[in-house]
TrEMBL record:
<keyword id="KW-1133">Transmembrane helix</keyword>
<feature type="transmembrane region" description="Helical">
    <location>
        <begin position="212"/>
        <end position="231"/>
    </location>
</feature>
<dbReference type="InterPro" id="IPR036259">
    <property type="entry name" value="MFS_trans_sf"/>
</dbReference>
<dbReference type="GO" id="GO:0022857">
    <property type="term" value="F:transmembrane transporter activity"/>
</dbReference>
<feature type="transmembrane region" description="Helical">
    <location>
        <begin position="299"/>
        <end position="318"/>
    </location>
</feature>
<feature type="transmembrane region" description="Helical">
    <location>
        <begin position="330"/>
        <end position="351"/>
    </location>
</feature>
<dbReference type="InterPro" id="IPR005828">
    <property type="entry name" value="MFS_sugar_transport-like"/>
</dbReference>
<feature type="transmembrane region" description="Helical">
    <location>
        <begin position="419"/>
        <end position="440"/>
    </location>
</feature>
<feature type="transmembrane region" description="Helical">
    <location>
        <begin position="189"/>
        <end position="206"/>
    </location>
</feature>
<keyword id="KW-0472">Membrane</keyword>
<feature type="transmembrane region" description="Helical">
    <location>
        <begin position="363"/>
        <end position="381"/>
    </location>
</feature>
<dbReference type="Pfam" id="PF00083">
    <property type="entry name" value="Sugar_tr"/>
</dbReference>
<feature type="transmembrane region" description="Helical">
    <location>
        <begin position="152"/>
        <end position="177"/>
    </location>
</feature>
<dbReference type="GO" id="GO:0009925">
    <property type="term" value="C:basal plasma membrane"/>
</dbReference>
<feature type="transmembrane region" description="Helical">
    <location>
        <begin position="446"/>
        <end position="466"/>
    </location>
</feature>
<protein>
    <recommendedName>
        <fullName>Solute carrier family 22 member 6</fullName>
    </recommendedName>
</protein>
<keyword id="KW-0812">Transmembrane</keyword>
Length: 514
């Protein structure tokens, strides 16, 4: 009896799994709100240099004060970061300052915004930008009294969210059977999709950045209260020499699933028999170095690192700059969130029929192609540019959906958390680098898009080097991963007979039977 058979005995798709997956997915619902919160709390309102105090207090109208204080840019709009060194009251006698330039008046001297900025609060009553004139966790961030404090709490929030999603995914995947793993993984991903739509609605109703931050943070306290109920993975408990607790957890699962008779049959000897091979190869304690211990593990870790980095890099490069599309950020947030629905359906079908490897490759390459094509579209064709960007974002969402499931299936139970932690760190690194690439656009407007589009295409090649996991049980030890090998046969990776004979002669019949 394998562990998968033992899971079927206690109930693999019963009431326990439904409650377990649902409750673990609830924090993911609100995680999207924090990941994309900067689009709203750090939105840049229309602004220009603050006028001179003596002008603003006079009887002049707001339009006259602006005209006498702030020059116009090339598009005929007030300059954001420049103002006249001295008020140009003579400009008020003409129709506009532009007409004066046409008459040959020499350029008037300007300066930076010495007295700060004036922000248009029509759309948003307050953002972190308008409050602290800044560029860029949780509940505490809403009460920040300085930009530095805000950044510190946001960093803490990001660290907590990273751990939250990794633990949630590992606990989900280790309590469900192979046959429903793809569907359940996608269903969990839809919680994140729904969170993006919820963020747009909440941000539309709450226009102050402090109250908005508080609103999307408080629900996590509810998840904290019931999180103590979760059962630890029985696989992990066995492999870490905690078999007695594993037996108790399996009995609890059986009772929740209404299988009390089966719960009474489970004992320590049955558990040992079902995972005898895994326990023999398990050394008890593992570290991040085990991710590189064998050639197979090194290949998996390097390739997954590239996949996660580029997916996150391009995803947040598109998603964190919604103001550039020239439409309401609330509308574009809904569109960007809604595109995940068909994208994840298609990638789920693809993973179920073709496998994780080709699905991951195609999602990445297609995303990169959409972004690169967008570079060739003129800026005045906003509808087409937005459509291509939305399609690219949908492909990246599909790639993320595949990433979580694929990585969890590639890494063995004994180091799954280490592996998921590593690739998640690479994804966070990609997300950090993404905004910095936008700065390159000041000198070369095409360069950020070229980088955002090129990275997924390159990582698609790395994804091609990964082994397939379709319809295969979860590996529990590094030995299980090595035994899979890297030789293709009938679209599935099978171990070489000679290699397996060296590791375990009893496994040679496996290839011969196939």
């Amino acid at each position: 009896m394998a562990f998968s058979d033992l899971l079927e005995q206690v109930g693999s798709t019963g009431c326990f799994q439904f409650l377990h997956v649902t409750l673990l997915s609830m924090p993911i619902l609100m995680m999207a709100s924090h990941n994309l919160l900067q689009n709203f709390v750090a939105a840049v309102p229309p602004h220009h240099c603050a006028p001179y105090a003596n002008l603003s207090m006079s009887s002049m109208g707001a339009g006259d004060v602006l005209q006498a204080t702030v020059p116009l840019d090339q598009n005929g709009k007030p300059e954001r970061c420049r103002r006249y060194v001295h008020p140009q009251l003579q400009l008020l006698s003409s129709n506009s300052s532009e007409s004066l330039w046409e008459e040959g008046v020499e350029e008037i001297e300007t300066q930076s915004c010495e007295d700060g900025w004036y922000y248009n609060t029509t759309e948003m009553s307050s953002t972190i930008i308008s409050e602290v004139n800044g560029k860029f966790g949780g509940t505490c961030a809403a009460f920040s009294t300085s930009f530095t404090m805000f950044c510190i709490f946001r960093v803490c929030c990001g660290m907590a969210l990273s751990g939250l999603v990794l633990n949630s995914f590992s606990l989900i995947v280790e309590w469900i059977p192979t046959r429903v793993r793809t569907v359940v993984g996608t269903g969990t991903g839809y919680f994140y999709t729904a969170g993006q739509l919820i963020l747009a609605a909440v941000a539309y109703c709450i226009r102050d950045w402090r109250w908005l931050t508080l609103a999307v943070s408080l629900p996590f306290y509810v998840s904290f209260l019931y999180s103590w109920w979760f059962l630890e993975s029985a696989r992990w408990l066995v492999l870490t020499k905690k078999s007695e607790q594993a037996v108790k957890n399996l009995k609890t699962v059986a009772r929740i699933n209404g299988r009390r008779a089966e719960a009474d049959k489970i004992n320590f000897e049955m558990l040992q028999e079902s995972m005898k091979k895994e326990m023999a190869f398990s050394k008890g304690s593992y570290s991040a170095l085990d991710l590189l211990r064998t050639s197979t593990m090194r290949t998996i870790t390097v390739c997954l690192s590239a996949v996660w980095f580029s997916t996150s890099f391009a995803y947040y490069g598109l998603s964190m700059d919604l103001q550039k599309f020239g439409v309401s950020i609330y509308l574009i947030q809904i569109i960007f969130g809604a595109v995940d629905i068909p994208a994840k359906i298609l990638v789920t079908i693809s993973m179920s029929m073709l496998g994780q490897r080709p699905s991951q490759c195609r999602a990445l390459v297609l995303a990169g192609v959409m972004i690169l094509i967008n570079l060739l579209v003129p800026y005045d064709l906003q509808v087409l540019r937005t459509s291509l960007a939305v399609t690219g974002k949908g492909c990246l969402a599909a790639s993320f959906n595949c990433c979580y499931l694929y990585s969890g299936e590639l890494y063995p139970t004994v180091i799954r958390q280490n592996g998921m932690g590593w690739v998640s760190m690479m994804a966070r690194f990609g997300a950090m680098v993404a905004p910095m690439v936008l700065l390159l656009g000041e000198d070369s407007p095409w360069l950020p898009g070229f980088i955002y589009g090129g990275a997924p295409i390159v990582s698609g090649i790395f994804a091609f080097l990964l082994p397939e996991t379709l319809a295969q049980p979860l590996p529990d030890t590094i030995q299980d991963v090595d035994d899979r090998g890297f030789v293709w046969k009938k679209d599935k990776r099978l171990p070489e007979k000679e290699d397996m004979a060296k590791k375990d002669p009893s496994c040679v019949h496996l290839k011969e039977s196939v």
